[in-house]
Write a structure and sequence with these properties.
four-stranded antiparallel beta sheet; about 10% strand; about 150 residues; two-stranded antiparallel sheet; alpha+beta
Amino acid sequence: MALSRQSPCWIAGRKLSGGFSLVEILVVVGVIAILAAISIPVIANVTRGANESAAESNLDHLNQAVLKYNNSITELTNAVDSGISDEQAVFALLQVRDAAVPGTPFLQADLGANSSASTNVYRARWNGRVFEIITPGTAGTGVNLSNLF
């Protein structure tokens, strides 16, 4: 059966094609590539900013626990256990429950002070008074701040 000019496949004297041309497909692929090139760095910056905010929040939480310890018991300065790192010893002191001291423990008992020397994560180093942040790209060992709380 031959198509006549009255058939639905003919409009205004032109035959309708059944798909997209190669040029149309290349234009769509090009637009998608441009959008991806713009959005991927933006998403990476958002992720980096979120990691930095989480690390700073965790660092503040640790230093608030140190401040509460200093106000309730005595000033926390140096680690006393030589078998573990200073950060881990401070964590252990902050996690002790003492019935005579209100507010203890100052940190949750299930938190682990996972030491890390990786230069890809935010870390906290004990400086003898408070925890200070070690940013990614900086050498040094400290408590991994990315998954504390």
